[in-house]
Amino acid sequence: MNAASRTERVPVEVAVGVLIDGSGRFLLTSRPQGKVYAGYWEFPGGKLEASETVEQALRRELQEELGITIGPAQPWKIEVVDYEHARVRLHFCKVFAWQGDFEMREGQAMAWQSLPVQVGPVLPGTVPVLQWFAAERGFAGATHDT
Questions:
Q1: What is the C-alpha to C-alpha distance for residues 4 and 104, in angstroms, rounded to an integer?
Q2: What residues make up the domain containing 126?
Q3: pLDDT tens-digit map of 77-118
């Protein structure tokens, strides 16, 4: 598929949770085996279902994948990313409160991180978020290993 035909695809709408703890660290999870980009690190979330809002989808996905119930989701930024397999519109929301114990229900791994992140490889759609954090926090230098 060439670049022109990829950009004409209708994007898949995805809610993404940027969980931030009291120390300012953020949560990254690995993509589970069997999914595209398995083993890559990303912010958790998933596709919106019909008639769901971004916050409803994020609440459902984080319960299904991580076993937690989130507090308010603060809309942050939207980014469209073209992958070979799909074009996605990522709706990033900051989340500062949640309840429950983390359960990696899809066999993924989790890691609380700060800049520069120590896990990798990082999913391409995650890189802009790391750059936004760097700008917000006055961080200079590489945000992750390439």
A1: 37
A2: 3-137
A3: 999 999 988 999 999 999 999 999 999 999 999 999 999 999
Assigned domain for 144 exists: no
| Domain tally, the chain | 1
Peptide bond connecting 32 to the previous residue in cis, omega within 30 degrees of 0 = no
Decide if 15 is inside a domain: yes
d(CA 17, CA 26): 10
Q: pTM for the full model?
A: 0.91
**65 within domain boundaries:** yes
| Residue from 60, 58, 68, 138 nearest 110 by CA | 68
Q: What is the DSSP string of the chain?
A: --HHHHHTSPPEEEEEEEEB-TTS-EEEEEPPTTSTTTT-EE--EEEPPTT--HHHHHHHHHHHHH--EE--EEEEEEEEEE-SS-EEEEEEEEE--EES----TTS--EEEE-SSP-S-PBPGGGHHHHHHHHHHHT--S-SS--
